[in-house]
Design a protein that fits this description.
single chain, 114 residues, mainly beta, 7-stranded mixed sheet, 4-stranded antiparallel sheet, 11 strands, globular
Length: 114
């Protein structure tokens, strides 16, 4: 069983930065694709960024150039560095691990004030 624990969310002014972290339990982290997703009130959950086991990355158009996903396999941790935050980035951010099945974290709230 895999457990994912996110941290790093909070309240920030527009233009500011936050770094989210997601720590995974278990031994499959290094061979798994990891992803960050977000869900704003009244909206569907959407992809923010993914990173493969070989550190290939993919980003939603809305965050390209502002967000960076990275991973540290020695710490079983995936990060999301978020710069130039905008009010429309306000959402609950979720970590996801994809292997033979997928696992979700509990989410961390990010609020960007204008």
């Amino acid at each position: 069983q895999v457990q994912l624990v996110e941290s790093g969310g909070g309240l920030v002014q527009a233009g500011g930065s936050l770094r989210l972290s997601c720590v995974a339990s278990g031994s499959i982290f290094s061979i798994s694709t990891m992803g960050w997703y977000r869900q704003a009130p009244g909206k569907q959950r959407e992809l923010v960024a993914t990173i493969t086991s070989r550190s290939g990355t993919n980003y939603a158009d809305s965050v390209k150039g502002r967000f960076t996903i990275s991973r540290d396999n020695a710490r079983n941790t995936v990060y999301l560095q978020m710069n130039e935050l905008k009010p429309e980035d306000t959402a609950v951010y979720y970590c996801k691990l994809l292997s033979a099945r997928y696992y979700w974290g509990q989410g961390t709230q990010v609020t960007v004030s204008s």
